[in-house]
Design brief:
This protein is mainly alpha-helical. Helices cover 74% and strands 0% of the residues. The radius of gyration is 30 Å and the shape is elongated.
Amino acid sequence: MVTNQKISELDYCYVSWELLQELEKNAFSRNECIRAFKKESNDRQSLITSVVALILPMILLGSIVFSNRAASLMYGSTGPTENIWTRVVGLLMLSAFLFLIVYMLSKELSKYKAFRPIKKLINQDLEANLRLEVDAIDQKASKIVNDSILKDSKIPDKFLSSEFLLVITKYMESGQASFIKEAVYALQLDLKNTGYYANIFPKETLLQLEKKYLLNRNDNLAQKIELAEKND
């Protein structure tokens, strides 16, 4: 990364743009880690819920198969083969129905706040792995955010996005501005008088969001994880 070496105003914009592109990729990697965690968490919870939902049908089948009345229930009193397949199919359908009822009920109950400690315990190892991956990503984000080019930027924070850097660079490459201050001023005029680029004007830039995130990254990551679990 560029630190204290002297560079031209245009090169300064190029370097700033490259840093912001790296920051975007880094933020995307963090989001992908959280998305992968959510998928693995959902898969694990679905497996556990399926196992729980199988308990009642298995108990029902076991109580019928191993009871003294199993033969009479399966074969009836008028012959060993009269209605055996009808009764087997009926028993399987009843088991499947019970499985679905318990599975759906368990899924709904797991959304309640009271079950979050259980979900957290189930996903404890997954969350630990996620935190290790995100820690490396956060360290890289911190280096980018604290790079002198962005930390003491000549460009106002509200315009420090890769989209606006391209616009500022275009002003300078076309000769509409010779310095960054002139390019920023031209951009402000366009936003005020014509509304150009208003569609890419964010309430907060990614750089600002990353700075906020890094101020208390452990709690902020916990919030992201909790939000991902709530959106199951």
